[in-house]
Amino acid sequence: MLSDQNPVWSLYLIKTAQGKIYTGITTDVKRRFEEHQAGGRLAAKFLRGKGPLSLEFFAEVGDRALASRLEYRIKKLPAAEKTKIISGNRSITELINTD
């Protein structure tokens, strides 16, 4: 694990009650998921009013730059590919070096 000055960033996928999948990054998955569930000003606009929410996937990925690149790439994927990540049939590591 990295030091407090260089926290480990995680990527996470949340599913809404309607089956939509949201992708995000954070240094504290539990806290961030609770913020989304609360639906207040700290929740992502995409998730507000779309509960109940379920945390479907998360993984520590390293620094913020890498987490941001992965988030961007996953957000561009079709829902079927995001579902493969959730089910373990697709690894996020294969998205790291795709340019």
Explain what you see.
This protein is of the alpha+beta class. It has one domain (9-91): 3-Layer(aba) Sandwich (GIY-YIG endonuclease), CATH 3.40.1440.10. Helix content is 32%, strand content 22%. It has 3 helices and 3 strands; from the N terminus they run E-E-H-E-H-H. It has helices at residues 29-38, 64-76, 79-87, and strands spanning 9-15, 21-26, 54-62. The chain has a 3-stranded antiparallel beta sheet, sandwiched between helices. A hairpin with a 5-residue loop joins strand 1 and strand 2. The longest helix has 13 residues, at 64-76. The chain is globular and about 35 Å long. The model has no long low-confidence stretch (mean pLDDT 91).
Task: Summarize the topology.
Blueprint: E1 9-15, E2 21-26, H1 29-38, E3 54-62, H2 64-76, H3 79-87
Antiparallel strand pairs: 1-2, 1-3
In short:
This protein has helices at residues 29-38, 64-76, 79-87; strands at residues 9-15, 21-26, 54-62.
Throw out a few tags for this protein.
single chain; 99 residues; alpha+beta; GIY-YIG endonuclease; three-stranded antiparallel β-sheet; 3 helices; 3 strands; 32% helix; 22% strand; globular
